[in-house]
Task: inverse folding
């Protein structure tokens, strides 16, 4: 089986450029489609379901970006909420600052670009700041392995939170409020598409193979000349970048930020999504993020019957039972396309498919 | 000067609390190389078990050392049982699987105990009945310096337990078996050591220590709640790593160092960064001396 | 024995279950498509989520009021106490004929103490349950997450006890029935300066808690204006149990009183440790102290401490005593300030609904804004231009293990 696949890859190599260009085009079309349908979705769906839809999108970004670190690179990070916090705060400060800045406003009025344009600027810079934080965290601590890394990332997440809490410029303990409500279907889901696309391309590039090498056997990888530290830092920074974008979207949806939101329970929530979906499966993360976000609302009803909150009890039980009976999560390292009949798959993916790896 | 000495006394008392929790942590790690995330929650269970024992047995009506011992035993028994069950149900089936799975399970167990604790005990803090020891008002003071009897009890107990553990590990058959399992699991079982039983025993011993810590903390800081274990658990872990994880003396040394660092940070510098300090220390120690103050460097096995 | 999925023949449900369990353990063997498994999951979950909202439209002769509170999580006591007050008020209103001939019905949603959940719950209440008005939240950070949604949908929202001034600044549909932090800080500062006649005060605040940080700030402002001095500003974070290092540092500055604007969960331990370090000066605090647990945990160390609150259970006014009696009958406990605020918030809302021309949002809003001298359990409530309640605060003192009334401080 392996042999056959590597042969097809060789055969397809000369077409691979075209195929990836085609894929990029398809993804770009999906991205534009998110904007096109945005007003329709916003009008057509009940606001309650709509807000769940938005949180689904944000959680998908978080889960997929954490999967890059936890799943594909095999590093166990439980500090993702920290990067989300950096992105959220930076994005909020930028959009609030720009909207209040007369020079910016007159420039916007003069050029005729929509006022919403502050959001992508804020999101991007928030993502960059989070990536910077990810790089700073990653550089020293990724020399560590497994358990130690887990606790260090948790510690960094906490340190970020404590710093936010002590910074008067971002409101200290009371945080930021009156953040403009700019997140909409278009922005959130184009970010989702972008995240999935980037992580997908990353994983299927040669960089991605170094990540998989790190996951499968770090020492062997090192012996083969893979710069494992660099690979890990890259994965970490990229994961943090998208977590930052998710944070920015979150800030402009909820309109209020407090440091307490980003404690380690938030990080655990994201970890649970990744583990449930399958570490090393992008579509698994997507499905798990949607499932858990919807579950959270569905269980709300059960809760009103019994007056107790069983949600976290159920989540933690799911985590334990998964590890005991099916440690690969729902999807393992496979993608949703792998479940389609083989003939469809060949047509859909062309030859450019490569797997997340694993067994 | 008085203030400085008072800070030292406070730090010793805080350090002995961390030490009591860290001892169990480091034991379990020493044998299994597993960071038992749920250790802080076992400590919480111990505190609640102690409280219920005191309430149900009406120990407050007979204050004294005897009542304290009964409460301690109840807490240690309950924690040991919890440790046994957790190891048996959640950790043992995963012993052969990747470390990351074990870690995720440990996180899951920790969350499960926190939230089930909230359902069972309620999330409002509860008062730990301090009446079982009539020590209030027996403070020893010299000028501005104040020492409470419970602070001395905790300090002495931390050191006694450290010595006892050291004795168990290095002078008894059980200890030798533990060291063998820690050194090489498979080899130990080939030598006829019942590894499963040894690991269970280690877990129960470590958990019992956490339970004892729960009661003592309850007596010194009489407020217990289901989420009380999280932060002390993490800080005890930091203390254990600081001293060299797996090393009993190191855990105590690390705990006192952490206690001192926190005390002086809060007392003389920036109190708001207290929670960040422990993690800062952890990161620094892992970067510059990952084996800890007293630890021995282990080569990475391929 | 039936051993594999095929043996079940035409029983699709059992078949699905068996396939599910088989494929669960052995993902490699899985043939049933994952898509259909997920679909199965959604089929199970969706009715759970949608069901109650369909049932909810059944009768038209009730007025639905939404409530969002933290009934679980680390701040569960706040949400539970408030809800008990709300519930008591609803029962009382319904027993006396309801509002405009209709009964009131409260729909409570839990937010686990998370702003994000509070926002979704608010959206759900407004768009699914179609509530007429909303009560909530206790914590300002959660009220701040809810308020923009209520404002956007033009649904009146009354917060029982969010004291951060920013909450009602969100818009003209957002009200509160409690005083705001600047006033509470002012009350304790004035009490310290004028009643206790102290000049040197130390502050020990909870840096994790925006309420505590805000109160410390406003206390400092007023106290300095009144000629006092803040000798040291120390802090801790909620969840800590050891405060000796902060208290040792405070002891070194020899203050005449210590202002600890935190929650009762930590204050009891702070008092104990302060006393054991030989600090004898009085402790001062705010409405976050109000819980029997404070006295239980703090014990003798709490004696002689003062804090500001919304009402005093010692108040001899008949309507206050009647409220306390009914509350004791229902919940076997003395109502805390939060329960009283929940009660008053509901009463003020119902009163506005009675006075409103119709039950449209705009009319209720206008009636709420016109509330004047409403006799609540927590004092005479008038709503001012900023939609905040103008009313006095009481200062309570811990005497012989109970809260006793010390003085009333009026605005201005």
Result:
């Amino acid at each position: 089986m392996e042999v056959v696949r590597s042969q097809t890859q060789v055969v397809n190599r000369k077409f691979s450029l075209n195929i990836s260009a085609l894929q990029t085009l398809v993804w770009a079309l999906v991205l534009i489609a998110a904007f096109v349908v945005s007003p329709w979705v916003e009008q057509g769906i009940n606001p309650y379901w709509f807000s769940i839809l938005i949180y689904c999108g944000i959680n998908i970004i978080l889960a997929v970006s954490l999967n890059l670190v936890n799943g594909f690179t095999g590093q166990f990070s439980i500090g993702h909420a920290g990067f989300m916090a950096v992105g959220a705060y930076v994005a909020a400060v930028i959009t609030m600052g720009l909207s209040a800045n007369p020079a910016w406003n007159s420039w916007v009025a003069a050029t005729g670009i929509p006022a919403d344009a502050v959001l992508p600027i804020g999101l991007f810079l928030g993502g960059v700041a989070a990536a910077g934080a990810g790089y700073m965290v990653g550089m020293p601590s990724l020399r560590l392995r497994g358990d130690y890394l887990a606790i260090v990332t948790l510690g960094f997440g906490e340190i970020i939170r404590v710093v936010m809490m002590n910074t008067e410029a971002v409101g200290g303990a009371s945080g930021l409020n009156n953040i403009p409500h700019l997140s909409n279907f278009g922005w959130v889901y184009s970010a989702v598409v972008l995240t999935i696309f980037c992580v997908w391309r990353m994983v299927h590039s040669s960089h991605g193979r170094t990540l998989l090498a790190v996951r499968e056997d770090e020492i062997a990888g090192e012996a083969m000349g893979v710069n494992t530290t660099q690979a890990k830092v890259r994965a970490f920074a990229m994961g943090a970048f998208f977590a930052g974008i998710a944070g920015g979207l979150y800030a402009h949806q909820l309109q209020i930020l407090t440091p307490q939101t980003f404690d380690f329970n938030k990080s655990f929530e994201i970890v649970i999504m990744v583990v449930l979906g399958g570490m090393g499966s992008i579509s698994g993360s997507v499905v798990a993020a949607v499932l858990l976000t919807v579950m959270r609302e569905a269980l709300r009803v059960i809760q009103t019957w019994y007056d107790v909150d069983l949600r976290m009890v159920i989540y933690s039980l799911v985590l334990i039972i998964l590890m005991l009976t099916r440690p690969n999560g729902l999807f393992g390292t496979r993608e949703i396309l792998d479940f389609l009949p083989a003939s469809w798959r060949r047509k859909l993916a062309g030859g450019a498919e490569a797997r997340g790896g694993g067994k | 000067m008085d203030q400085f000495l008072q800070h030292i006394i406070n730090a010793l008392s805080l350090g002995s609390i961390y030490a009591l929790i860290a001892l169990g942590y480091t034991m379990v790690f020493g044998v299994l190389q597993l960071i038992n995330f749920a250790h802080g929650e076992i400590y919480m269970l111990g505190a609640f078990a102690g409280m219920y024992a005191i309430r149900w047995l009406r120990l407050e009506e007979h204050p004294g050392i005897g009542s304290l011992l009964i409460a301690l035993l109840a807490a240690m028994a309950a924690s040991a049982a919890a440790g046994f069950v957790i190891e048996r149900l959640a950790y043992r089936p995963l012993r052969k699987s990747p470390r990351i799975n074990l870690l995720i399970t440990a996180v899951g167990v920790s969350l499960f105990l926190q939230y089930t604790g909230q359902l069972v005990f309620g999330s409002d803090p509860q008062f730990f009945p301090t009446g079982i020891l009539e020590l209030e008002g027996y403070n020893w003071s010299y000028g501005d310096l104040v020492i409470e009897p419970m602070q001395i009890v905790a300090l002495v107990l931390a050191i006694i337990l450290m010595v006892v553990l050291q004795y168990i590990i290095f002078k008894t058959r059980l200890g030798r078996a533990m060291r063998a399992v820690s050194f090489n699991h498979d080899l130990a079982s080939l030598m006829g050591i019942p590894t499963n039983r040894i690991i269970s025993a280690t877990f129960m011993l470590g958990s019992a220590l956490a339970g004892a810590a729960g009661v003592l903390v309850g007596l010194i800081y009489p407020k217990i709640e289901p989420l009380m274990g999280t932060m002390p658990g993490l800080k005890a872990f930091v203390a254990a790593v600081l001293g060299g994880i797996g090393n009993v003396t190191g855990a105590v040394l690390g705990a006192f160092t952490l206690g001192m660092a926190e005390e002086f940070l809060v007392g003389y510098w920036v109190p708001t960064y207290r929670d960040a300090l422990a993690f800062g220390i952890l990161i620094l120690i892992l970067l510059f001396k990952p084996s800890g103050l007293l630890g021995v460097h282990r080569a990475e096995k391929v | 024995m039936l051993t594999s999925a095929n043996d079940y023949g035409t029983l699709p449900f059992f078949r699905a279950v068996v396939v599910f369990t088989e494929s669960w353990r052995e993902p490699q063997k899985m043939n049933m498509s994952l898509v259909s498994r997920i679909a199965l999951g959604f089929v199970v979950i969706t009715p759970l989520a949608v069901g109650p909202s369909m049932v909810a439209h059944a009768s038209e002769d009730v007025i639905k009021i939404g409530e969002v509170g933290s009934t679980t999580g680390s701040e569960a006591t706040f949400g539970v106490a408030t809800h008990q007050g709300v519930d008591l008020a609803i029962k009382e209103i319904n027993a006396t004929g309801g509002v405009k001939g209709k009964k009131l019905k409260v729909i409570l949603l839990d937010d686990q103490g998370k702003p994000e959940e509070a926002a979704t719950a608010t959206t759900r209440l407004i768009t699914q349950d179609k509530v007429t008005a909303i009560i909530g939240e206790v914590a300002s950070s959660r009220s701040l997450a809810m308020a923009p949604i209520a404002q956007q949908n033009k649904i009146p929202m009354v917060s029982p006890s969010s004291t951060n001034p920013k909450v009602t600044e969100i818009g003209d549909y957002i009200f509160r029935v409690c005083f705001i932090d600047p006033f509470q800080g002012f009350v304790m500062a004035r009490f310290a300066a004028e009643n206790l006649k102290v000049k040197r005060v130390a502050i020990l605040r909870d840096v994790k808690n925006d309420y505590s940080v805000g109160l410390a700030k406003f206390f400092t402002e007023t106290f300095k204006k009144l000629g006092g001095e803040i000798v040291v500003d120390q802090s801790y974070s909620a969840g800590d149990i050891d405060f000796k290092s902060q208290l040792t540092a405070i002891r070194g500055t020899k203050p005449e009183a210590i202002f600890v604007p935190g929650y009762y969960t930590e204050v009891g331990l702070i008092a104990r440790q302060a006393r054991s370090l030989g600090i004898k000066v009085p402790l001062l605090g705010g409405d976050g102290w109000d819980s029997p647990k404070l006295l239980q945990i703090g014990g003798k160390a709490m004696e002689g401490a003062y804090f500001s609150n919304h009402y005093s259970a010692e108040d001899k006014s008949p309507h206050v005593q009647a409220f306390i009696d009914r509350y004791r009958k229902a919940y076997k406990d003395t109502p805390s300030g939060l329960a009283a605020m929940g009660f008053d918030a509901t009463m003020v809302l119902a009163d506005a609904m009675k006075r409103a021309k119709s039950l449209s949002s705009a009319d209720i809003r206008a009636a709420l804004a016109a509330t004047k001298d409403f006799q609540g359990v927590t004092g005479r409530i008038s709503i001012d231009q900023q939609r905040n309640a103008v009313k006095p605060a009481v200062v309570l003192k811990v005497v012989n293990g109970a809260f006793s009334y010390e003085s009333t401080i009026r605005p201005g």
Summary: Residues 1-12, 26-35, 47-58 of chain C have pLDDT under 50 and may be disordered. The first strand of chain C starts at residue 62 and ends at 69.
